[in-house]
Write a structure and sequence with these properties.
By secondary structure, this protein is of the alpha+beta class. The chain is built from 13 helices and 19 strands. Strands 8, 9, 10, 11, 12 and 13 form a six-stranded antiparallel β-sheet that branches. A four-stranded antiparallel β-sheet has the order 1-7-2-4. Strands 15-17-18-19 form a four-stranded parallel β-sheet, with helices on both faces. Its EC number is 6.2.1.5. It catalyses: GTP + succinate + CoA = succinyl-CoA + GDP + phosphate; (S)-malate + ATP + CoA = (S)-malyl-CoA + ADP + phosphate; succinate + ATP + CoA = succinyl-CoA + ADP + phosphate.
Length: about 400
Amino acid sequence: MNIHEYQAKALLKDFGAPVAEGVPVFAADEAEAAAKKLPGPLYVVKSQIHAGGRGKGKFKELSADAKGGVRLSGSVEEVVGNTKEMLGNTLVTKQTGPAGKQVNRLYIEDGADIDRELYLSILVDRTVGRPAFVVSTEGGMDIEAVAEETPEKILTLAIDPETGVTAADSAKLCDALELQGEARSDGETLFPILYKAFTEKDMSLLEVNPLIVMENGRLRVLDAKVSFDGNALFRHPDIVELRDVTEEDEKEIEASKHDLAYVALDGNIGCMVNGAGLAMATMDIIKLYGAEPANFLDVGGGATTEKVTAAFKIITADPAVEGILVNIFGGIMRCDVIAEGVVTAVKEVGLKVPLVVRLEGTNVEKGKKIINESGLNVIAADDLDDAAKKIVKAVKGA
């Protein structure tokens, strides 16, 4: 689960991280009062959407030379003008795709005199099975570009969960970020704070880009992106309350109601699979044969007929789907349950696109019989390779 920048900063501030004063705004008539609560005279008006690249983004409704989704303002009046121009319009960034996202809330923040911009994040390094800091002196830009062009400027430092961030760890991070004087002292305080927030709140990602050294020599968290492990949200009702469903795909929201692992993608072949590994393999082989998956959907090992029906409805609700591949290997999951769910769903919502079904494993013959006797126009497949070829051919032929 993702949250907005202003929510992330409020959370980090509660742990003791240095952040600027700021006020979220949900309506244009709130802007003046919000700005007057801040010290000034420099303000920053930030679009709050779940996507990066806001500063370089463009609003669909505005002219091409209009400012982006993050704007400096030198007066309260300028804050109000920017708010009126940004709020309610659609911001397109490199991460939103061409459709963009409507800006429904802004964050008006006190400005900062920046000396240097740094990069810092914490994530789970699965190669060592530990949380790890990723830091670089090249802040304010895409860390992917830094990794590709100047990888020597990035330090990845895994943290021992039993000790947390030690003095030696802090020293390595400070050295990598070239922190001196008060900034170094601030770093030695900040790194354990961020690690504590990451672990205690079950975050999957904490990214500060940029972490700045101000002209007065102090550190400040200038931007914050936080994602949480959805499997741990039951432990954090306070975090659940921060969820903004307007930023999420409607199909993903519906899937979460049925405990389905679903992620919307940009392709045209809908996938329903049991098991994350098999789902990834299914998407890979679809791409291998020249098409693109429309989703990742794992119905899990213990899905019921009702759950499978819901999954099928979610897939067919996507107007981009031109074909569907059901790929089930029945271990815990029974093939007859999948078959019953598919038949039930098709009878309820209809079938307007090609459907390829590959079943293997527990009760496979029962499952095939249910499909064969359903009267559905289904293309049967013997294995994954055969299934992928058939669905791609069916879609391209259509």
